[in-house]
Amino acid sequence: MPSEKIIVYVNDKPKETFLGMCVRHVIGARAAQRVKTHHAIVRDADGNVVGIDGALFDGARLYVAPMDPKSFADEIQKRA
Amino acid sequence: MLKRMTALITLSLLLAACVAPTPVPTPTPTGPLTVTIFHTNDMHGYLEGQKIRGGDGVEFEFGGVGNAMGTIVRLKQEAPGPTLLFDTGDLWVGTFASNRDQGKTIFAAMNAMKYDAMTLGNHDFDQGVAVVQARAGEAKFPILIANIVEASSGQVPAWAKAYIVKEIGGVRFGIVGVSYTRTPGISSKVKELQAFKFVDELEALKQILPEVKSKSDLIVVLSHAGFDADQRIAAALPEINVIVGGHTHTELRNPKVIGSTIIVQAGSRAQNVGRLDLTIDRASKKITDYSKSNVLFASVSNKAQTPKEIAEMMTKLIADGRAATQKVIGETAIDLTRAYTADGRSTGEYPSGNLVVDAMLWANQAGDAPADLAIHNNAGIRADIPKGSITYGQLFEMLPFDNVLVAMDLKGEHIKAVLEVAVSCPRANTLVAGMSFTYNCALPSGNRVSNILIRGKPMEPQKVYRVQTIDYLATGGDGQAAFKEGKNLIYGDPVIDVVAAYVAKTSPVNPKVEGRIVEVK
Å from A17 to nearest chain B CA? Predict the structure, then answer.
């Protein structure tokens, strides 16, 4: 039975967790809720948006930043 | 006379034309061929989109399978040439309505959309191999898993393929699928998956690509390995032209290019559809150009052109799911309450909480060794259920978080550390089954817990116990760092499903408050 531990970085702070956990587990429940309501957004090291149920991998770097829900709505309409 | 001769000549020409029509040469296509790849991934059974209100006040749905399919329909009309349509897995597990449908409706929608191929994600095995096999039997498109072989034969299972070759405009596309190699280590179906060998994605591709390359002009990999792994694969295997990814839920709004390999991925929850245009030289059969930016299109209801057949499928499935949440699954002989005291404190033991941890201890996930104890956080129980019938909808109000069961080995000293954090006075933020303890808020933090009994025996600090908990705590939620000392993790089913199964099995439930957690002065 494997139980591989991985280190991911959230806003450059290391967080130890287990392989199989996802983004919402390491950003914290409050931040995850803010992401769900589009008051915050999570990006990877390259600046790509990642979902809160996205799989983690060792060394992953995540950045949580605030976001305006209205501008989010406009952005996705432009991208449709 | 002249008129007559002219008429005769005309008639003879017409007759000659009828008897032996002049062949019209088929024009040989000239100029480059443009093939558009459309792709989805990690839809996770999100049948409905999220309701969003724009700055203009107009409300629309963002995401959802129906809207994604409607977005594909719209984008296909704009495609300059032939198209391919792929999905890269984690398709149907993730929402109540889709879980209970076991993917049947989503596969029917994909058949209607004429998907060309898909690969499997780790969550596609959550409901067991038999479900995957059944869906594969219904799919009118191949399931590609080059890196999953039967342990007994070493072959890709009969219901799947390693790769296919599709010819489009004289160009042969070799399409290979790879799933997540570490699936058995993070799946609740660990025992079942022992019948298969999950080969490392890169190694499997190294083995199969020479064969694929000998039969094709361009190579497309459908991958559920994750964005990090896809980049490693691209760096190691430059003969791959395109990797369509998944697993990390990454929104690659612009393709990532490693060497000459193009990597794309479309986020999750059917919120985006990927569109990659490839310009191909017909003579050399090489890619000469591709979409370099803005390759993700948001699936929004006000622009989607969802086919009526698919819209009806989704509406029915959503309605069925809603109806099912109102179905009675069992009864409770008592009020399932959270017995907070008047000053807002709780001993951490109350009827609804004990029901949850009793169910967790009862669940013997994946044939795992029986657990000694179960621990859930107090704050995760959010509603009471009155005496009488219990519906799934009521359980959802009680357990609104998407927690799944996690079994792990944990030493007694670490269990004590967990309890010490949990009883950060004045609240006791824990629920336990299979064990009991006392705590004293007059004592300093870290020394408040005593009299820990596990299965009726005093806890031994160095002894290893099997603990059932939830993913939120296992990864250190609520400040529970000691759970990170856990070993031999096995992920289980969603806690709500475990509790629902327990209620159905043991109804009428009658959880007792029996002094598992006692505050002493």
Answer: 5
